From TrEMBL:
Its main location: cytoplasm. Keywords: Cytoplasm, Transferase. The lineage of its organism: Bacteria, Bacillati, Bacillota, Bacilli, Bacillales. Residues 18-158 form the Aspartate/ornithine carbamoyltransferase carbamoyl-P binding domain. It comes from the Bacteria. The gene is argF. HAMAP family: OTCase (MF_01109). One of its GO terms (cellular component) is cytoplasm. This is Ornithine carbamoyltransferase.
Amino acid sequence: MIETMQKNDSKQFNFKGKNFLQLSDFTTDEILYLLDVAVELKAMQKQGKPHPYLSGQVLGMIFDKSSTRTRVSFEVGMMQLGGQAIFLSSKDSQLGRGESISDTAKVLSRYVDALMIRTFTHESIEEFAHHAEIPVINGLTDLQHPTQVMADLLTILEHKGKLAGLKMCYIGDGYNNMAHSLLEGALKVGIDISIASPEGYMPNQTIVENAKQIAKETGAQITITHNPVEAIQNADVVVTDVWTSMGQEAETEKRLKAFEGFQVNGDLCKHAKSDFIFLHCLPAHRGEEVTADLIDGPHSVVFDEAENRLHAQKAILKEFLQK
Ligand code: CP
Ligand code: NVA
């Protein structure tokens, strides 16, 4: 028998049929509710309790970029929820031969119950969502990685026992999907966030303006600086990401120079709180954005974070797909 989520029964949130494209589309309460559902589903899975909320449903997954965690966690998540997932790489489908996004979205809407898409421009996923008659979930674009940040928030909650009132810092490439989704996600749940990035790699200005608005609503603080030592002062949560994201490989050498001084290492982390936790969405480049001793050391929770992709996404799938 499927257990009801009595803890949340009093709250009425209706995600059915909606898209999951960026965290700024959701209220603080909606994000906290999805995290609650993730906690419940994780407990059920750990206790071996079946939870086939999506029996008979199928998730289509389109990948224009590589993936280990996103692909496997969505696929396993659908299986654990009683459904199935289909993997489509753009190079093996007609999308790679130029079939339009609108025709693809309309056709796939006739077969599957939802689409998860990992692609390059954020506009492409918005176009998919516009033409699809089923929910579209963002599995990463150049601009946003919201399912990763849901897993990050779940990991912080597990390790710190709370979200609001904590301080997070993100050191590295500010104009990247992780920085943007962390800005929105952290501020929505009341976590102060400081981002330190070199000149030329600061966060997207539109996202920053929107983030300032979110900060006003939740009372959380936002700081954007070029100074990693300033950003990491008293941080509870230290985050970084690769300096060269997928699709930017031609800029690798230039970026290695630009990000000198922005490595997360033991010296820098002396300025964080003594019990800070370290997050990285992975894959990581040890010796570049983070030292091996840090990511493989006692402050690192990167494998809990990777596991939580599964649980956080199952909550999204359950809430957005359940009939
Ligand atoms: N963190 C993350 O999205 O990993 P993958 O690229 O392996 O999916
Ligand atoms: N910023 C990285 C995240 C990988 C999960 C990228 O886009 O490649």
